[in-house]
């Protein structure tokens, strides 16, 4: 049985879900972003208790098909941005279509109707957050980051970053360096 979980966005979320499943003694064989695969059907009572415990961590079980599809789209986007270093074999629209076996036009229209934003806007927001992380914690150049996140060029990344944040990537990185120097001088 598959159980879908809303708001799972990182490895820590998988750990939280795994811990709750073990605590509740719900047999499972796999926990992925947004999904739990169980060995057997889970009773409505167990689902209710699971949902209550997950909500304390900011997570939530999904029951309606509409919510499940939205969460699957999000999880595929998150995986695409966070786990595809370098150029993937295919464009995101093709990947999404293949993963969900629905046309990209249908998925894009559905996502926009439900979320009041577009897949493209959400993807840009995810990428910019990933760029920020890589600038703060990594040693990659802007060109290397652009390649990792499938931008056509460092200039394209810089333009999009500035449009979203109001800062250039270089300025953003320099702000981090200034804060580090200021803290070290204390």
Descriptive report:
With 186 residues, the protein is an alpha+beta fold. It contains nine helices and four strands; from the N terminus they run βαββαβααααααα. It has a four-stranded antiparallel beta sheet with strand order 2-3-1-4. It is globular. It starts with a strand and ends with a helix. The model is unreliable at 180-186 (pLDDT under 50).
| Weakly predicted, low-confidence segments | 180-186
Helix content: 55-70%
Coarse structural class: alpha+beta
What's the order of the H and E elements?
A: EHEEHEHHHHHHH
Count up the helices: 9
Strand elements, count: 4
- Indicate the proportion of strand residues: 5-15%
* Distance between the amino and carboxyl termini: 55 Å
Round the mean pLDDT to the nearest integer and report it: 85
Strand order of the largest sheet: 2-3-1-4
Sequence-ordered SSE layout with sheet pairings:
Elements: E1 2-6, H1 11-23, E2 28-32, E3 35-38, H2 44-55, E4 60-62, H3 65-82, H4 92-100, H5 104-115, H6 119-137, H7 142-148, H8 154-165, H9 169-184
Antiparallel strand pairs: 1-3, 1-4, 2-3
Helix pairs in contact: 3-4, 3-6, 6-8, 6-9, 7-8
Q: How do you describe this structure in short?
A:
The chain has 186 residues and is of the alpha+beta class. Helix content is 63%, strand content 9%.
Features:
186 residues, alpha+beta, four-stranded antiparallel beta sheet, 9 helices, 63% helix
């Amino acid at each position: 049985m598959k159980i879908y979980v809303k708001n799972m966005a990182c490895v820590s979320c998988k750990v939280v879900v795994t811990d709750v499943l073990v605590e509740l003694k719900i047999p499972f064989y796999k926990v992925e972003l947004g999904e739990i695969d169980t060995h057997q059907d889970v009773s409505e009572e167990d689902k209710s208790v699971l949902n209550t415990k997950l909500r304390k961590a900011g997570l939530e079980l999904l029951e309606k098909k509409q919510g499940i599809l939205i969460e699957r789209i999000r999880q595929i986007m998150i995986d695409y941005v966070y786990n595809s270093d370098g150029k993937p074999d295919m464009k995101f629209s093709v990947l999404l279509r293949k993963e969900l076996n629905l046309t990209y036009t249908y998925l894009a229209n559905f996502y926009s109707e439900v979320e009041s934003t577009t897949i493209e806007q959400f993807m840009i927001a995810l990428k910019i957050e990933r760029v920020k992380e890589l600038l703060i914690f990594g040693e990659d150049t802007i060109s290397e980051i652009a390649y990792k996140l499938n931008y056509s060029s460092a200039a394209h990344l810089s333009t999009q970053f500035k449009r979203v944040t109001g800062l250039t990537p270089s300025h953003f990185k320099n702000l981090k360096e200034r804060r580090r120097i200021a803290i070290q001088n204390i």
